[in-house]
Amino acid sequence: MGARSVEIHPLVGIGEVRPGDILEDLLVAALDEAGLTVTGHDILVVTSKIVSKAEGRLVDLVTVRPGDEARRLADITRKDARLVEMVLGESDSVVRAVPHVLITRHRLGLVMANAGIDQSNLGNAMADQVLLLPLDPDQSADRLRTAMAKHFGVAPAIVISDSFGRPWRHGVVNVAIGASGLPALLDKRGEPDRDGRTLEVTQIALGDMIATAAGLVCGEGDEGIPAALVRGYRWSGQSFPATALVRPAEQDLFR
Fold first, then answer.
1. DSSP letters spanning 117-174
2. Residue 230's closest CA among 26, 50, 5, 27?
3. How far is CA 69 from CA 66, 84, 85, 87, 205, in A?
4. Is residue 61 helix, strand or coil?
5. Is the four-CA dihedral 188, 193, 197, 202 of positive or negative sign?
6. Closest alpha carbon to 160 in 121, 219, 211, 111
7. Is 143 exposed, middle or buried (0-12, 13-18, 19+ CB in 10 A)?
8. Which DSSP state fits 192?
9. How far apart are CA 112 and CA 95, in angstroms?
10. pLDDT tens sequence across 60-110
11. How far apart are CA 162 and CA 47, in angstroms?
12. Which helix (H) or strand (E) holds 53?
């Protein structure tokens, strides 16, 4: 497992993705433009933003009527009550609400700011529009992988990435919220280390590692690069979706 060298190829020229666009066609065109022919050992990393756009996950806040709880939390966090209403609708529970910060447990189990709802880099969207996460990122990854296999004759692994803040650390990194064709969580428990000691707790967040690596070329600002091809990494073991990375609420170490 692993590689002596890993290549990360940014996919440029995809342009603004709009609801109803066939995302696999845009990705294939970008791969062709870059002169890249996909192999079965490649990993295609796609940002959740363009997946959500293609799936029509845009909501106009003008249509949102905040309830009492949303208004209460909006007063605490100093956020738009309509946005807070959308956050609550996407969440199972509120983890933290303080001025300018609203952390929730998303319905997918992801603990994140504003339930992953985004207002940045929406192209020509109206100022009051927001973008929700994909309904089922693992399923979205499966669909993209199937489409890539039909076009190229082989199925690359797919990782759908999103940016996360981390407890006790400044800054965001990219993590995998959807995955297909690779072990998003690589379980090393029971294997020996170099000294022959049995690993007891080691599980590697491979999906997150790949997502973060791709983030080096995709960026977080105005780069306009929403996908990348990771080449040269070799893995083994059973494939697991990104849901395997989510720690169950009952195992929350900070409650």
1. -B-SS-TT--TTEEEPPPS-HHHHHHHHHHHHHHHHSS--EEEEEEEEEETTEEEEEE
2. 5
3. 8, 9, 8, 11, 35
4. helix
5. negative
6. 211
7. middle
8. B
9. 9
10. 999 999 999 999 999 999 999 999 999 999 999 999 999 999 999 999 999
11. 6
12. helix 48-54
Spatial CA neighbour of 48 closest among 102, 106, 126, 2: 106
Q: Which residues contact 16 (CB under 8 A, 6 or more apart)?
A: 123, 124
Record the pTM: 0.92
In the numeric block, the tokens 């994140």 are attached to 112
Least confident of 70-74, 133-137, 168-172, 202-206: 202-206
Largest CA distance in the chain: 62
Of 54, 163, 46, the C-alpha closest to 110 is: 163
Which H or E element spans position 216?
helix 206-218
Task: Tell me the per-residue pLDDT of 225-247, one tens digit each, with 9 for 90 and over.
Answer: 999 999 999 988 889 999 999 98
Q: Choose among 209, 226, 210: nearest CA to 218.
A: 226
DSSP state of 247: P
CB contact at 8 A, 159 and 207 = yes
Locate 226 and state its tokens: 């929403």
Q: CA torsion angle for 182, 187, 191, 197 (degrees, to 10)? A: 140
